[in-house]
């Protein structure tokens, strides 16, 4: 566009008539752009019921490609919606504001104002999709609680029963741990507890995915400090670097993809380093970030390469074997290390081979934990939701390392907004009430984090000694927050705090 549109120019937004003209221009631009986007997406959408959501998603992407702050300010002054809650209903929200401005300006030919049903249709579709994918929420709150089952769940039915009674709505089994024998016992206990309590609980299973982790460590008790050198090797330790810490990479085929000056983060971001020398056999790393007293590098700790675009096959041979079990026993599959729409398509093809006997399609949850997944998020959502019940898990641990801790809050919000626009449910995951779960006492920041999780459709707790207490507290926090806020909208109930 050569000229600045009126909706981006504060000097052209001084009167109701100018604001109206700007909104009309914005609506036209968005529709034109969204129609082109949807035309591309439609080729991959098999579920007709997702087309309504896909169109709204395309409109929201078009809307958010523009800086609308000047227009928002003009609408606020007129006492109208500032478009800040358009996620689930882009076109109805625009049309409602346009209709109000037309009435203010006494225009004879007016756009038809959306009905209440049309205005809130997107919210209702999101609720239906959440019920379909995650199971119905309990009567007392709309946000579900997912709990990672420990090994105890395979041997102790009473423990599983108490999980449901305290408020667990979804059970998560991580295929990286235990075995099919234990998994089957866990699921049997969940199904038995459902019948005993009358409460429903969906079972989700995480594919382990490719393990980009540390393996053997040459000096397992030695602390690594800032400025130290680490040799991250593929297959064999090197006598050339025997004077430094040597660490084997559990996925050696990725090392040739890493270049000099790329970043490497170890142990969930606790140790940061830069590649000083790269070769197919190994990487020489210089530590740039670690706690002052240093940190011991242990085997089986995560490795992240945020500045390297790794080409990794997201489905391993173990994953394919585990899919046989998942398709027979579980309600949904959590897909680790998703990078783009092709990864989703690959899993869907594998599921299609195994789903012939299922009465209901398996729900698919895409775990968003890499920079590439964030960049390809719209295509991942359309590929997933266009074929089957679909949700998104914001895996904040790996994601924070990948994009930088300073950006995690920002990206988390954007993923919530985009998912709402596509009417796709979100699972808020990683380190929720971590201190409470592990030690029995929560930090103040954890409680605030848990309260903000009310904007998702599900919150995930990891396993720990005090998990029963954590479920009870999270249940209470979510119930209280629901009276104050839903998504981004404040709920203005009467306040009693100071009375």
Outline the biggest β-sheet: 8 strands, parallel, barrel
What is the overall number of helices?
17
**Average of per-residue pLDDT values:** 92
Q: What's the assembly state of these chains?
A: single chain
CATH homologous superfamily grouping of the largest domain: Phosphoenolpyruvate-binding domains
Helix content: 40-55%
SSE class:
alpha/beta
Distance between the termini: 56 Å
Q: How much strand content do the residues show?
A: 15-25%
Model regions low in confidence, pLDDT < 50 over at least 5 residues: none
Give the overall shape, derived from the CA principal axes: globular
Q: Give the name of the CATH architecture of the largest domain.
A: Alpha-Beta Barrel
CATH topological fold name of the largest domain: TIM Barrel
Number of separate domains: 3
The gyration radius over C-alpha positions equals: 25 Å
What's the CATH first level of the largest domain?
A: Alpha Beta
**Strands, total number:** 19
Which strands sit side by side, in order, in the main sheet? 1-2-3-13-14-15-16-17
Q: Care to give the gist of this entry?
A:
The chain has 499 residues and is α/β, with parallel strands linked by helices.
What would you say this structure looks like, in words?
The protein has 499 residues and is α/β, with parallel strands linked by helices. The protein folds into 3 domains: 6-119, no CATH class; 126-210 and 313-489, TIM Barrel (Alpha-Beta Barrel), CATH 3.20.20; 214-304, M1 Pyruvate Kinase, Domain 3 (Beta Barrel), CATH 2.40.33.10. It has 17 helices and 19 strands. A hairpin with a 2-residue loop joins strand 18 and strand 19 (489-490). Helix 7 crosses helix 8 (180-197) and helix 16 (444-452) crosses helix 17.
